[in-house]
Amino acid sequence: MEQEIVGFWTDSRNEIIGKCIELSAKDAILEPDESYRQNREQVFEHLWSALLQDMQSDTMAKTGEVVGSLSREAVRYGRNVEPIQRIIEILMKSAEEAARTKYREDANRASRIAGHIKEYLDKTMIILTKSIIRAQAEVIEKQKEYLLELSTPVIPLLDGILVLPLIGTIDTRRAKQIMDNLLNGIVEAQADTVLIDISGVPIVDTQVAHHLIKTVQAASLLGARCIIVGIRPEFAQTIVKLGIDFGSIVTKNSLQAGLKLALKWHNYELRRVGGGGPDASTGADS
Amino acid sequence: MLERTSSIENELDIIAARRCAKEIAKELGFSTVDQVRIATAISELARNVVLYAKNGSIAIRVLCEGGRKGLEILVADNGPGIPNVELAMTDGYSTSGGLGAGLPGAKRLMDTFRIDSKLGQGTTIVARKWKA
Amino acid sequence: MHQQVPILKIDDFWIASVQGSLHDQDVIEFKEALLNKIMQPKSRGLIIDLTVLDVVDSFVTKTLIDIRGLAGLMGVPVVIAGMSPAVAITLVEMGLNLEGVDTALNLQKGLDKLRNAGKER
């Protein structure tokens, strides 16, 4: 029985591919699509031979590979995935038509073959759906990593002073990334003081507080002192309510106040030279 | 599947075991921090063997599961066993005058940690770390 | 097999650079050797440089805390210098803290710290 479909598939190669080209030229989705205009024939041949191999081995491994790479490419470049679905549908439709033509006299055989083709169409569609989901998950995972890197800059401010502005939610994974980045930044810059600005962190709960404490502890093991700045009243209340021991951690309400303290630690003095500048309102506030 | 077993009888074996684990972790592509985490966990577990059971063994296995790579540490001894595992897993609890951070610390450094101990028969610990 | 940690003296400060991996007996001997050195009169401080130490477990941590405590009794300040990020992260995750132990990014900064501490006193 499997032999029958394999035989048909091999014998009717030219008819099937030919029909595919013909149908796709008229297709409302495929025709205007740029991505497969140049290599459409190749794509059909690829898929055809993958299916042949799978029919012979009774798996869907090869088709999975071809469909997988098509959808990965589409998803990665942000292209529509509908044309891929069309390509599969057209191949199967062409095959079915080829079977009906070939076995005009043998209606039973024609519908048996058509049944097989339908079966393979279903299997391939399932594979397509799965691989699109997988490809999307891969892209999301990658983007997460980019975002993690983007979201934890360690800024060297002055000789020996770093600023770590934290923006957005801090989960365990990001907390680890932050700690990694910060510690390597400290060693790289040989910085003694770090200002951690948490004014951009929307929710500071026990978990976040715990991560902050760990980060400060690790930095202190290296020999760098941290000042946590930008603590809002709600957060201060949370700390007190939860009974979290911020113990020896130095905190300031604003980045400015933290910077002043850091400068003092480093024996710097912030002083305006000459008369008031173009923006006389800054610098002197406390 | 790669697997390396070494016997633990004295302090020198502790260093050999953690060096071996670190090398395997490095080969698998674990980050520097993860390599140190794994080596430190081994150090703690191997020291317990030397301290309490006198001798035992450590096996380090490479794991491959659904595309994920990981490393498994299996520590086994035929020592006296741990009378109260829950207590032994508590921070600061020690019967040897140490910091009491060995077992709970090693657990926190690894992703999964299972401890089986029978009085008079010995202790088995299986801990795993997956590549991030 | 046996490793000895060289203990050097600059001005009145003792400097010990720990190399590679130490096994437990080495660590104990290292502690004894350090305490013997800083017992000498005119010892103004001790720096333990961990730059090339790859693993710091609870045993080494305990020893460092002990050294600091004993040195403190003798009035000698201790600075731990050059700990790597990976080791620091591991210690923090294990829940070990060296609270009360002074740290510095490198030997030079450690020395500066001790000199300043001396001035303040």
Protein described:
- The complex is a heterotrimer of chains A (286), B (132) and C (121).
- Chain A is of the alpha/beta class and 286 residues long.
- Chain A has ten helices and five strands; from the N terminus they run ααααααββαβαβαβα.
- The relative contact order of chain A is 0.08.
- With 132 residues, chain B is α+β, with helices and mostly antiparallel strands.
- Chain B has a single domain, classed as Heat Shock Protein 90 (2-Layer Sandwich).
- Chain B is built from four helices and five strands.
- In chain B, strand 2 and strand 3 form a beta hairpin.
- Chain C has a single domain, classed as 2-Layer Sandwich (Transcription Regulator spoIIAA).
- The longest helix of chain C has 16 residues.
- Classes of the chains: A alpha/beta (286), B alpha+beta (132), C alpha/beta (121).
- At the A-C interface, helix 7 and helix 8 of A face helix 3 of C.
Keywords:
heterotrimer; A: 286 residues; alpha/beta; Globin-like; Transcription Regulator spoIIAA; 2 domains; five-stranded mixed sheet; 5 strands; elongated; C: 121 residues; 17% strand; globular
Order of helices and strands of chain C: EEHEHEHEH
Oligomeric state of this protein? heterotrimer
The overall pLDDT of chain B, averaged over residues, is 90
Indicate the CATH architecture of chain B. 2-Layer Sandwich
CATH H-level superfamily title of chain C: STAS domain
Largest sheet of chain C: 5 strands, mixed
From the 3D coordinates, which CATH architecture of chain C would you assign?
2-Layer Sandwich
Radius of gyration of chain C, Cα only, in angstroms? 13 Å
| N-to-C CA distance of chain B | 20 Å
Terminal CA distance of chain C reads 42 Å
The number of strands of chain B is 5
CATH class of chain C: Alpha Beta
The domain tally of chain C reads 1
Query: What is the β-strand count of chain C?
Result: 5
The CATH homologous superfamily of chain B is named Histidine kinase-like ATPase, C-terminal domain
Series of secondary-structure elements of chain B, N-terminal to C-terminal: EHHEEHHEE
Strand pairing plus helix content of chain B: what structural class?
A: alpha+beta
Strand order of the main beta sheet of chain B, please? 1-2-3-5-4
CATH fold node name of chain B:
Heat Shock Protein 90
